[in-house]
Amino acid sequence: MLTSPILSDDHLLRALLKDSLNGLILYQIVRDETGRPIDFRYQLVNPAAATLLGASQEELIGRSCREVFPQGEELRHYYKLVAISGQNMRVDYQLPHDGRWFEVLITGQAQETLLCFFTDITERVQAEQALIKNLTLLQQTEELAGIGSWDYDRSMDCFFWSEGMYRLFGIESGAPVSLQTYSKSAILADQPVAQRIVEQLTTGSHSFEEVLRIWRHSEVHRIKIKGVVKADGKEQPDWVLGICWDIS
């Protein structure tokens, strides 16, 4: 660690604790007679962390983590793992009393101490949860309506297929798909249609609509395919989005 000719390491740490927008706590490890870590005593607490704990910095210094934060047994479990192993750890933790999520970096320090950094990630977690919820709703809707959705990234030559697409084409969920999937699935008479779809996906600049007859579980099905080129103001669009449904 770089030191200042004016400020000691302790003063530098205190300055960081004071000015950081994230929560920072320095704990003294408390061990039993066998050397097992059993608790953690507050040595330094910055204002952001004190606010999270609902107390002033002065009220926290020297007190036990179990006493101040009795509901934090899960978090103390991670503290103990770091105290025993000496290996730093990064975990996501939800505060029991208000539901906020934090990324917690736990680092072992000299003189039997732990330095912990708390970063609020509530918005990120909520966005991830909303995405999962929306994907679940999409899957349920597709299953009920018998449709599938897809997007194709031209720059990466990469497809994303929803679960509904795999069902429509009779392909195992999660199996790799590519532009060739259309020609492989199409009946012989519809190979020209499959080729037109590929051309629209790779170089087309307008919306398109095709009906492709495919083999699915030894039966012929008529699949309607609609695609929209997502330009975003670019001369050469990178994305094509679309849906499919069975019109047999």
UniProtKB/TrEMBL annotation:
InterPro entries attached to this UniProt entry: PAS, PAS-like_dom_sf, PAS_4
SUPFAM superfamilies for this protein: PYP-like sensor domain (PAS domain) (SSF55785)
Domain (PAS) ranges: 13-64
NCBIfam families: sensory_box
Name of protein: PAS domain S-box protein
Species of the source: Spirosoma aureum
Classification lineage: Bacteria, Pseudomonadati, Bacteroidota, Cytophagia, Cytophagales
